[in-house]
């Protein structure tokens, strides 16, 4: 039946959503660790060259169906959220 | 050394980026399949109730460090890109 087909696909999508959630948070933890190392080094957190490199790697490894530009937009949003995470940690550290 | 520590963390981040890329594209393929089933059924592609449900599941399963609102923003961007993917398929089908 068509509705079963839709239900199966939706179940798969729900699983992928949870995998994505876990992976984005795993990425968040790594970015927090990187923030701490940079803090100790006195290095700036925002590194546009490193961001550009990561976006190029995304495009180079993209097998679709999303277009490079769409994926790069999504990753830029993830980068932005990650930088905010590091800034939150920084503020918390200052308040202690 | 501090720079080795940063290099190791960055390598891990690069790996997570590639996993994310693969997973977002896997999600894209599922959404394309769902679009085709809905097309056959004559169902509307955009389903705000289903989107809201998925966003609630994200918040319910979020273990951080990202806040619920940040993750929901990122997922909304992914949903938007997915809908555009379905619309592209629709246009292509019409042009054949």
UniProtKB/TrEMBL annotation, chains A, B:
Signal peptide: none annotated. It comes from the Bacteria. Residues 1-90 form the Chorismate mutase domain. This is 3-deoxy-D-arabinoheptulosonate-7-phosphate synthase /chorismate mutase. It comes from Terribacillus aidingensis.
């Amino acid at each position: 039946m068509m509705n079963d087909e839709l239900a199966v696909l939706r179940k798969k999508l729900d699983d992928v959503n949870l995998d994505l959630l876990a992976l984005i948070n795993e990425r968040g933890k790594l970015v927090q660790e990187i923030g701490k190392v940079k803090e100790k080094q006195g290095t700036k957190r925002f590194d546009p060259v490193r961001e550009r490199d990561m976006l190029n790697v995304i495009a180079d490894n993209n097998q679709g169906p999303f277009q490079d530009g769409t994926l790069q937009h999504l990753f830029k949003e993830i980068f932005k959220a990650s930088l905010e995470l590091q800034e939150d940690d920084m503020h918390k550290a200052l308040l202690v």
